[in-house]
Amino acid sequence: MQYGFVIPIGDIHTIAELAQLGEEAGWDGMFYWDGIYIESMPEMYDPWVVMAAMAMRTQRVRLGAIITPLSRRRPWKVAREATTLDHLSHGRLILPVGLGALDDGGFGKVGEATDRKERAELLDESLDIITGLWSERSFTYKGKHYQVDGLTYRPTPVQQPRIPIWVVGAWKREKSMARALRYDGLLPNNMNGPMTPEEMRVMRDYIAERRTSPFDIIWEGETPGNDMERASSIVRPWAEAGATWWLESRWSTQNIDEVRARIQQGPPRIS
Q1: What's the mean per-residue pLDDT of the chain?
Q2: Distance (Å, rounded) from C-alpha 227 to C-alpha 262?
Q3: Which of 79, 189, 197, 203 matches a 20 to 30 Å C-alpha distance to 217?
Q4: Predicted structure pTM score
Q5: Cis peptide before 47 (omega within 30 of 0)
Q6: Which CATH class is domain 2-265?
């Protein structure tokens, strides 16, 4: 089990500081998030700039943004941004992707696609293009939404065969799960209600039947940093059910001191 922390708030200088504190406290990954306009959030920043700042303050932890909605980003730009950040961080980037949440005004308020099917099509084509452009070969693509005519991207990412891609997968929707299984990790979204460890075991077995190479299952939640025995007891059932990453995510928190304190208390490692 590896342990990451999603930083939900803070100005950009504070976020970079918190990433450094997280590395010092023993977290394995420090993550930000991709938002354009969410009324309930007091402040937000471009995730690629934020992650660059985080990379400059850290040396070991993995970095990523939970999540990048590829339907509203040009895939050839994302491919270049991700490669640049992978080099800046010396191969520590993870690319978590999905459809995104429509409560972000960066969809409907600016004319981006909101239809689920269309966003899924854009996600699939974007992933094809991003991974194709990372190959260092001349890449051509003709899709329903995007076309690429003979682009060759250099340099390639530091990480090979590619930067790890985590994909949000709707359990038990076959098409959504098949998309995630083509890549490197799954952020599960249970369409039948709250996920339980028992349900995750079923999902883990489903994945094992279809994947033989290493594959991450990412789960998120909150644990009390002042009671590590209790924290471990929260995480343990998910680890036993197949989760390989625990993301400490405190989306309702608006107190930066609370966020800093929880980071410094360290990950809820299973004793």
Answers
A1: 96
A2: 11
A3: 79
A4: 0.97
A5: no
A6: alpha beta
